[in-house]
Amino acid sequence: MNISGDSEFLSDYDPTAYDCPSVTVDLVLLGLHRQRLSALLVRRDQPPQAGHWALPGGFVAIDESLDVAAARLLRDKVGFDGAHLEQLYSFGAVDRDPRMRVITIAYLALLREDQMNAAVRAGRVAVAALEGERLAAIGEDQAALPLAFDHQAILALARDRLRGKIDYSDLAFAFLPPRFTLRALQDVHEAVLGTPLNKPAFRRRMLDRGRLVATGMREDEASHRPAELFTLGSAR
Amino acid sequence: MNISGDSEFLSDYDPTAYDCPSVTVDLVLLGLHRQRLSALLVRRDQPPQAGHWALPGGFVAIDESLDVAAARLLRDKVGFDGAHLEQLYSFGAVDRDPRMRVITIAYLALLREDQMNAAVRAGRVAVAALEGERLAAIGEDQAALPLAFDHQAILALARDRLRGKIDYSDLAFAFLPPRFTLRALQDVHEAVLGTPLNKPAFRRRMLDRGRLVATGMREDEASHRPAELFTLGSAR
DNA sequence: GAAATAGTGTCTGTTAGACATTATGGG
DNA sequence: CCCATAATGTCTAACAGACACTATTTC
């Protein structure tokens, strides 16, 4: 008979007296690179798993919330903030890191193409395309990259979550600059879903949603008829 | 220039040397009670927040995964296992517990009506209906129950997640016994969504999905025409 | 004017809501 | 025979895919 909650033994619980797991945040940095959904990864140069590729991450400080930790790591790892950040899932298998018990809260960060490029140019991370249903991360030389720890599973979940939310959420716009063409928006959807979409139906669906605002401006630097630029209006 | 991952300083990291947050799992036990979506809560009898109502939960042991911890807590708190369990979200605001830094991974557990009743009869938990958009937990005497810590937000997220997944996932069946009528299935959807549904359209949608298997059996103890009993078929 | 892509009109098949109707058990 | 609910048929509106067509810019 235990009507009371868990918390009666919290009162006299001394955290330093017990083993406690370490808590980290890992970032799944996703963006479009050459029309393909890609992730930014870092190369491990220390064992274990030296030479494998990993999600950037780090420990959660005792005085920062999970969201704040994710934002801090984003700044540290790619050198800027302002990307869309949302919590993805928490991974806590006992042996996911061979050195110690680490529970990680994975965050999804969505980057615009210019942000992807800036991070790569700064030498902090490398781009890997997410290919196929088995979800191999492909490096610049087209070879599959070995992924460290359970990061393959984390990437797969991130991709699935993005696919599931892309057409009823505003996530697609996080990949795009403030002004964008309908073609660019469709490219985002197609890259995320991995399948071509019908152009008129896509246009209708997006416009009927009532969120896109025509700017009257047109794209330049096109060697053909330039498309109109839209912005995302407020949610009502 | 930091090409390497976060993990180089993991190598010589001693977890006992730093403050580390405590990690708990909290359970959002949901089920239908008198045709309403309801949660099972425990009453806190120790400060802080004595007299408030809370989600049952407990610490994650150093040698158990998050999923295993959730299953163990389910067994301890309601006295059985076998309920549908899935991870919901992780909450890590710095001040969410006034005593110490606690990061909690919330799990969603879906119970059948007989499981709800068994848990209540065993005196371990109390039922609270989730009412309205502001999501007040309502006790037996129809008064709103004060919720401890950030558990109101956790309940709200659980309800929203359930609403979002109810019609493309198998979650609804977790609330039902192995054999059920279409009416009972519709009751589940209506209680979760909080809105009435069209009967013929609902039947068609469910049957066209190809997952429901007619048993040829009919419900008994009905004072009118008895409905056919169905089971959930395999996913292909 | 040729090339290329933007943008539109229209047909069709699928699906959901609304509503009426028939079917079948208990009393 | 009455009642209550199960189960079904049908009409209609909304919507997505397919495809053809027109429009507009650069070169």
TrEMBL record, chains A, B:
Keyword list, A-Z: Hydrolase
The keyword Nucleus is assigned to this record: no
Keyword Ribosomal protein recorded: no
SUPFAM superfamilies in alphabetical order: Nudix, Winged helix' DNA-binding domain
Pfam families xrefs: NUDIX, WHD_NrtR
A single GO molecular function term of this UniProt record: hydrolase activity
Domain Nudix hydrolase: 24-114
Domain annotation NrtR DNA-binding winged helix: ranges: 172-232
Protein name according to UniProt: NUDIX hydrolase
Organism whose genome encodes this protein: Sphingobium yanoikuyae (Sphingomonas yanoikuyae)
